[in-house]
UniProtKB/TrEMBL annotation:
Entry-linked PANTHER family: DIAMINOPIMELATE EPIMERASE (PTHR31689:SF0), DIAMINOPIMELATE EPIMERASE, CHLOROPLASTIC (PTHR31689)
Sorted UniProt keywords: Amino-acid biosynthesis, Cytoplasm, Isomerase, Lysine biosynthesis
Species for this entry: Aromatoleum bremense
Subunit structure: Homodimer.
Name of the molecule in the record: Diaminopimelate epimerase
Amino acid sequence: MRLRFTKMHGLGNDFVVIDAIRQPVDLTPERVRRLADRHFGVGCDQLLVVEEATRPDVDFRYRIFNADGGEVEQCGNGARCFVRFVHEQGLTAKREIRVETRSGIIAPRLEDDGLVTVDMGVPVLEAARVPFVSDSDAVVQPLQVGDASVAITAVSMGNPHAVQVVADVDAAPVEVQGALIERHPRFPARVNAGFVQVVDAHRIRLRVFERGAGETLACGTGACAAVVTVILRELAQSPVRVETRGGELDIAWGGPGQPVLMTGPAVTVFAGEIDID
Ligand SMILES: N[C@@H](CCC[C@H](N)C(=O)O)C(=O)O
């Protein structure tokens, strides 16, 4: 199978984007892993597939696969790249679009300055399985990770995140602890592990060990989950600028029951074709 693809990134979280509207695409987990391979394929953290909508009230369907081949529910940096892709490819002229994902509909908007704002939906506090909680036990929970007991907030942004607050994100044991948290029995579907340092009421620093991809330079849904966490823990207030190793994102959240708005860049790097068996 010969596939046309576009390589994109959002703050260094990189993607292979495939148009499945204008070419036949048949992906298996093995093919995803080969495309994502940085030595034998194109290389990416996630593969994004753009498809026709399956319902009349949305413009497109968008599917997300981690580098390990697993299909997942949501991807924030990918959502921004998705909008830039459908514009650059002439698939739509709309600046505000509605997109089906595995975890529901999101609404990204291409701004006049080229940045993209995405309504990422209402976060859910996993411990309580409700979007509105006042119970602090549900906000901060102990998790035994190897020899350490860490205090996590389990937030779903459509996909799962376990966020902990650390004193210094550069010194945080992201690789070692992130890998243990990703596969912790508390999260049967595995989880993205976030490490957040509060700089001041409107600025945090973040690293994320992503499920199915390892540590990435930035994670959009991770940034949303981190902001929800620090606001619920009363360590910060909306809006919050999130510093990642790949750059900065702006996140606004009005509190429980409200959607999270994420604004940041999306960049096209190159396009190509690849033969994949
Ligand atoms: N990098 C993404 C998240 C991609 C999916 C994640 N690894 C998961 O398994 O849930 C983002 O920008 O949100």
